Amino acid sequence: MSLPIRDDDHARHAPSWYAETARAPATGAALAGDVAADVCIVGGGFTGLSAALHLARAGAKVALVEQALIGWGASGRNGGQAHIGMRRGQPWLERHVGRDEAMRFWRLAQDARAHLDWLIDEGGIDCDLTPGLFEADHRARFAAETRETVELLNTRYDYPHVRVVGCEESRALVATDGYHGGMLDSRAGHLQPLDLAHGIARMAQAAGAAIHEHSPATAIDRQGGRWRVATPGGAITADRVVLACNGYLAGLVPAVEARVMPINNFIAVTEPLGEARAAGLIRDRLAVSDSRFVVYYFRVTPDYRLLFGGGENYSMRFPADIAGFVRPHVLRIFPQLRDVALTHAWGGTLAVTPTRMPFVREIEPGLLNLSGYSGMGVVLAPYFGRLVAQALTGGSADFDRLTRLPVPRFPGGRWMRWPTLVAAMTFFALRDRL
Fold it and tell me: What is the rounded CA–CA span in Å between residue 26 and residue 272?
């Protein structure tokens, strides 16, 4: 049972502030006819575009197919927050993979952040990368765990960029009574994600990768020892296939969907607030995310709007009125914005796994999957594209490490996994309110 996408207009991007302000969109002609390649990539988001870039630079013949437009899915719709680390914290990793391996994953996360800087610098990508992310505690009882996490990162992991924020400072940073302190990471930050996707695409095309928009993969089969990826306009025959679809796989490879589940998330953006009022909401141009299971995440845009993500649904369709759906969440944090109009609102489909850790595997010989970023894809997904390129052109110890992360199947099999997830997510969303 796959999640249909309500906004199935593949001819244009979602009505987002990102699409309205995108600087230099990259494009690619639809696939016409049959072609051969060394590697076929399915998905034109951060993972697929970065994989195309690094494979092409390594000398591989690369063809990428995207069902709609470059960055049309989660890569061009997300909150733009550049978190450091995996979705689960280091204490969780230490318990599940051991301290030494957890430290290697932390190093991988630092490499991913450095890779983001490299992409932006190397490609001259103008995407408003801004430092500073405040991870806010929405319950006072979380303060002790936050202090322990900061101490662990400062000492054992030699990460000096994070510090504790107390309750009083929290309210100076964010003009709300809804938070009780938290953790400030100066190495994390935020950016314009659709501009980043377009920039990586231009780099990949310059390196020789062929990118085909409006070319949805309709079937993937083995034929004569090679893989064949069919689209309405033609097919690509390749030695290897990289699946980079995240929440938009839509029944293509059931073995992936057993462990990767799409969910919907929603964002709204206010009218311009002016520099003074915007700075009065969030100081120092920080991004903010909080400790809710169903996370609130928000920031001020360069034109002084509040961009706010909040609320998920687990139905088969987006709400008819997305702005109306997000607005109560905005006012829960910032009731002082009751007089402010929301000018943009959109939904997107991300992907989660049972452990919230990414699902990176070779599904069959020559068929590789990278997905399930669970909200951490801005930093991780482009780097995972680099790692899969390394794995295919000589080997990568870090790619092999990712394949060993614990990612079980969702319980209930094909027909029950969706209602099981809905029940679990609804429970945790209710717990957030208690």
Answer: 27
